[in-house]
Design goal:
There is one protein chain. The chain is an alpha+beta fold and 150 residues long. The chain has seven helices and four strands; from the N terminus they run ααααβααβββα. Strands 2-1-3-4 form a four-stranded mixed sheet, with helices on one face. Strand 3 and strand 4 form a beta hairpin. It is elongated and about 55 Å long.
């Protein structure tokens, strides 16, 4: 990785194993994910076994070990949205994007996520794209919602 900010983060915490989670958070904030080759470098700089770095990075949902798309699509799968057709909506999004949940499409445009409740139960089924709520989305309308990201 040829990133000055990442180099600075690692230099600041070099030889400090107790800084592992903080370093992972800072680097992910910078790169939006944690590449495997960088985890190896973190292991060496912080003097922490790679197995421990991998254990922490894969345990916490906060950390991403795969690249994230430019647009993050969240489909609510909470009870209220399920009653209103969230499963069918999620299937439609899978088909349109050609990816499964927690995957990123080939051109790194979309990352698809699902959530148990996104907090707008009266507006379901709901999709949130890059923090913007799209209420009462139907399978017929979802393609237009996704195209609005272009």
């Amino acid at each position: 990785m040829d990133n000055e900010r990442v180099d600075r983060i690692l230099a600041e915490h070099q030889g400090k194993p107790s800084s592992l989670i903080h370093v992972l958070m800072e680097i992910q904030s910078e790169l939006h994910w944690l590449p495997k080759e960088l985890l190896d470098r973190i292991s060496r700089k912080l003097d922490v076994p790679l197995s421990r770095v991998m254990q922490i990075a894969s345990f916490y949902k906060t950390f991403r070990l795969t690249p994230k798309g430019r647009h993050e699509v969240h489909v609510c799968t909470g009870a209220s949205c399920q009653v209103r057709g969230a499963s069918h909506l999620l299937d439609t999004v899978h088909d349109l994007l050609g990816i499964a949940t927690e995957e990123t499409d080939g051109d790194s445009k979309f990352t698809l996520m699902k959530g148990n409740c996104l907090g707008c139960c009266t507006l379901g089924p709901e999709i949130i794209i890059d923090g913007k709520h799209h209420p009462r989305v139907t399978p017929d309308r979802v393609e237009a919602v996704l195209k609005s990201c272009e």
